[in-house]
Write a structure and sequence with these properties.
The complex is a heterodimer of chains A (176) and B (684). Chain A is an alpha/beta fold. Chain A has 6 helices and 5 strands, in the order αβαβαβαβααβ. Helix content of chain A is 39%, strand content 15%. In chain A, helix 4 links the parallel strand 3 and strand 4. The relative contact order of chain A is 0.20. Chain B has 5 domains: 132 residues, Rossmann fold (3-Layer(aba) Sandwich); 179 residues, FAD/NAD(P)-binding domain (3-Layer(bba) Sandwich); 61 residues, no CATH class; 164 residues, 3-Layer(bba) Sandwich (FAD/NAD(P)-binding domain), CATH 3.50.50.60; 56 residues, 2-Layer Sandwich (Alpha-Beta Plaits), CATH 3.30.70. Helix content of chain B is 27%, strand content 22%. In chain B, helix 12 runs parallel beside helix 13. Classes of the chains: A alpha/beta (176), B alpha/beta (684). The interface between A and B is large, with 67 and 74 residues. Strand 5 of chain A pairs parallel with strand 2 of chain B, so a sheet runs across the interface.
Chain lengths: 176, 684
């Protein structure tokens, strides 16, 4: 079964080496196609790399290039964008806007020294749950092979230290 | 206290209710995090206690709890109580997908006295527990998603739920039994219905059948009264020989453009007396009769079948001599007492506004020539099941006689099940109706001809009221059942008794041997497939298709007739293979859902519309050109772009493109998304 999807990655690390690099990947999925496909992957219990954290947007056309930059700045090692197939956009043409911006963005990221393989735009329709599994696994492996993107540490060092988080006043477990 | 009754979809109270101001947060957001076990669906993989403990350390979180089923009444009550007690004023629920229960929890948040939009969901079931194998990884991912939601919800702004008016008219696309039933249900409820049918008559596939399983009642007897009701109903506008060519607008206010193809006969004058058909210069039919599956010939002027509704003749310009050569005395015109002919007719377009749309576009049968091993198209006496339905029909090409191509009666008939279904090479799915109609055909053929009938099946699937009993009855009638997939049909005889016959070669898995059975007639039980233009239709109506090409329902169990486009509903086999009882039941459900929507008169709109901060807008026009709905205009006086919120559908393309950050999207502002990105990455 697909539960073994992660295993090849882990098996590739020889015994005795320090903990393997576990990349962080931020995914921007559109509500109508790719996010629904991710739900389908869940309903179908398709196991895939846990590295991908999905941020739901209504349309891939909402993906502001700044979101991708922010993700890298905040420590992401890879960014995945998922939208509807060409011609299938719930909002007619948002995915085309995403495509256009993506090409320009990738060119700019290259100048920052961010490899092409760290960003990926993928069309995944609502019925393609298995595609979510494949793409997330591929992305995780690809970024793992590239190693960590050290950008986050630099950017963080420049920022002011985070304020101490207030503790919750009430932590309770309720049982039925 | 803001408390809309009904669900967040807006079922319940009407518009115009005063919307109270939000509770003063008095010192900033207080976020409550509620982690759901979902029985063991989440708790079986994710360490829920660890997620709660983690959540309690996050900024602004004042309450963190877990519960077995957050969507249950007591689960929702937890949220409402904490809101009422003032412990929290923002809510994060970590449970299933927002596509599942976002509305439920928005409602609970509203019931607790807050804006329903002070809520964010973290999907730790579909995104975590169901897709991450390792418990530790799953718990970490769950924490990340909760952190993202907590950071973002603190920034949510106060929004008022918006409503839009819904027009009372409904459009139904497709005039088969599904469309007919839905149209009558809505029309009887007093709503005006536009029924659009591509063929020249309504009735669809059902009108082609002779009998229906398992009761063996005649299809025409139960269908044609409904067809004439459609024709005469004051609330139904029936457009046959017409197609939908464009859909614009949005939930509650669609503008649908319909093309009406020319019949060359005026609908208001033709009475369906058929005198013109007799008068036509063609004394015999010469052109393929599509209605009879090509088993007979028709004239250039024809009516598909006697009870066609509306009973209007159609001129086929491809066949008519006048259209081909311009040289024909046109006796049809003289024969018509009503002067109904109009050879100058051209296609016309109608544009109507409707509040809801029901798609009932039906199916097509599997093309048997795609399986050459069964010899369809090669051996004349290999028929599809639909062709045999026409042979059996008293109004069909043989007036109800089962005849071979040479006019003789078959003595042995073989029916091959699952043609194109349950087959990795063609369609993996079961077409659901073939077992039952094959049994029906076996019964009918045996009754009409006395032939020996062999059914070759993989499994017998007879789930349905009276279906298994019907199977039992057919078995007792002496129909031979051979369990095994047929390898092929051939006319090559291997023995003397096979000479002059078609031979069906099949493995009989019950006796464990390969058999060769000589027959006179082969019937291929072809499966159900999506209409060839299903992809175009779904694009036009902005809905989606599954991998096999049938339209996708919003939820397979809880919203089986709705689609992801509000106001567009599904009925019948366009959603997936189904038999007549299921089709009618679904059509009734679709009509009821559409009725619920148009009868209430308004819908709640998505809150995630765009807005432009005039203080920041530089007036660059980028968004104006990008908006696919023309919702953004340019205010020349103030030199800023302005969003028309009623037209905006909330995609956020403008916000994604705005160079100055002036264009933003409610619930998806840059700040909210940045916060979520930070949350999912920097949670530890």
């Amino acid at each position: 079964m697909s539960e073994t999807a992660r295993e090849p990655v882990e098996a590739a690390v020889p015994a005795g080496t320090p903990a393997p690099f576990d990349p962080k990947i931020v995914a921007f999925f559109c509500n109508w196609c790719t996010y629904t496909a991710a739900d389908l992957a869940g309903i179908s219990r398709l196991k895939y790399a846990s590295n991908v954290r999905v941020v739901r947007l209504m349309c891939s056309g909402r993906v502001d290039p700044q979101f991708v930059l922010a993700a890298f700045r905040e420590g992401a090692d890879g960014v995945l964008i998922g939208g509807c197939h060409p011609g299938d956009c719930h909002y007619q043409e948002g995915n085309y806007n995403a495509l256009r911006r993506f090409e320009l963005l990738r060119r700019m990221l290259r100048q920052f020294g961010i490899e092409d393989e760290r960003v990926r735009l993928e069309w995944i329709s609502a019925s393609e749950g298995d595609r979510v599994q494949t793409v997330c696994n591929e992305m995780a492996e690809q970024v793992r092979a590239l190693g960590p993107l050290r950008l986050g540490t630099v950017a963080k060092a420049e920022g002011e230290p985070a304020a101490p988080a207030p503790r919750a006043e009430l932590v309770g477990q309720v049982t039925s | 206290m803001f408390r809309p009754e009904g669900d967040g979809n807006g079922h319940g109270k009407g518009p115009g209710e005063p919307i109270p101001q939000p509770i003063t947060t008095n010192g900033g957001p207080k976020v409550g995090v509620y982690v759901c076990h979902c029985g063991l669906n989440i708790a079986g993989t994710v360490d829920v206690a660890a997620v709660v403990a983690f959540a309690s350390t996050l900024p602004n979180v004042t309450v963190a709890r877990d519960y077995k089923f957050m969507c249950s009444d007591p689960g929702q009550e937890l949220i409402e109580q904490d809101l009422r007690d003032g412990l929290v004023n923002r809510v994060v629920v970590a449970s299933c997908s927002p596509l599942m229960h976002e509305m439920t929890f928005r409602r609970a948040t509203a019931a607790g006295g807050q804006s329903p939009f002070y809520f964010q969901m973290a999907s730790i079931r579909e995104q975590v527990s169901w897709v991450v194998a390792d418990g530790e990884d799953a718990t970490e991912k769950a924490k990340a998603l909760v952190a993202g939601a907590v950071r973002r919800v603190a920034l949510h702004e106060y929004l008022e739920p918006r409503t839009a008016e819904v027009r009372p008219e409904v459009m139904i696309v497709g005039g088969g039994i599904a469309g007919i039933h839905a149209a009558l249900t809505l029309a009887d409820a007093g709503k005006h219905v536009y029924l659009v049918e591509r063929e020249s008559t309504i009735g669809g596939h059902m009108a082609k059948f002779d009998k229906t399983f398992p009761t063996l009642d005649c299809a025409a007897c139960i269908l044609t009264p409904k067809m004439s009701q459609v024709r005469s109903h004051p609330n139904i506008t029936l457009w046959t020989y017409s197609d939908v060519v464009g859909v614009e607008g949005y939930t509650g206010d669609f503008t649908v453009r319909v093309r009406r193809r020319p019949r060359y006969v005026r609908e208001d004058l033709c009475t369906g007396c058929l005198a013109c058909i007799d008068a036509c210069v063609h004394k015999q039919g010469k052109y393929t009769d599509e209605w009879n599956e090509g088993l007979s010939k028709r004239k250039p002027i024809y009516i598909p079948f006697p009870q066609a509704t509306p009973a209007l003749v159609v001129v086929d310009p491809e066949a008519c001599i006048w259209f081909k050569t311009g040289k024909c005395p046109r006796p049809c015109i003289d024969a018509c007492e009503r002067d109904a002919f109009d050879f100058e007719q051209t296609e016309t377009f109608e544009e109507v506004k409707v509040g809801a749309i029901v798609l009932a576009t039906g199916f097509k049968t599997f093309d048997a020539s795609r399986m050459p091993e069964y010899g369809y198209g090669l051996y004349p006496n290999v028929y599809t099941s639909l062709e045999v339905e026409r042979l059996l029909n008293a109004a069909g090409p043989t007036s109800g006689e089962i005849e071979l191509r040479d006019g003789t009666r078959p003595k042995v008939v073989g029916i091959i099940h699952c043609v194109g279904s349950r087959d990795a090479k063609h369609n993996l799915y079961c077409s659901r109706v073939c077992c039952m109609y094959s049994l029906k055909l076996a019964h009918m053929v045996k009754e009409r001809t006395g032939a020996e009938v062999y059914n070759f099946y993989i499994d017998m699937r007879t789930p349905g009221k009276g279906y298994e009993e019907f199977y039992d009855k057919i078995l007792k009638e002496g129909v031979h059942m051979v369990r095994g997939r047929v390898a092929g049909v051939t006319d090559e005889a291997a023995s003397r008794e096979e000479e002059g016959h078609l031979v069906i070669r099949a493995e009989d898995t019950l006796i464990g041997s390969v058999r060769r059975i000589p027959v006179d007639m082969v019937i291929l039980a072809v499966g159900i497939e999506p209409q060839p233009d299903a992809q175009d239709v779904r694009r036009m109506f902005n809905i989606s298709c599954g991998a096999e090409g049938f339209f996708t329902e919003r939820h397979p169990k809880l919203a089986p007739v709705s689609t992801f486009t509000d106001g567009v509903f599904l009925a019948g086999a366009c959603q997936g293979p189904k038999d007549i009882p299921d089709t009618v039941a679904q059509a009734g459900a679709a009509a009821a859902e559409a009725l619920a929507m148009v009868d209430r008169g308004f819908v709640m709109l998505e809150a995630s519309t765009a807005f432009i901060d005039p203080a920041v807008c530089a007036g660059c026009h980028t968004c104006v050109a990008l908006c696919p709905f023309g919702a953004i205009s340019f205010d020349r006086e103030r030199k800023v772009a302005v969003v028309n919120e009623v037209v905006c559908k909330g995609c956020g393309v403008c916000a994604g493109a705005c160079p100055s950050g002036a264009a933003q999207q409610h619930l998806f502002t840059d700040e909210e998304i940045f916060a979520e990105i930070e949350g999912v990455l920097a949670y530890v």
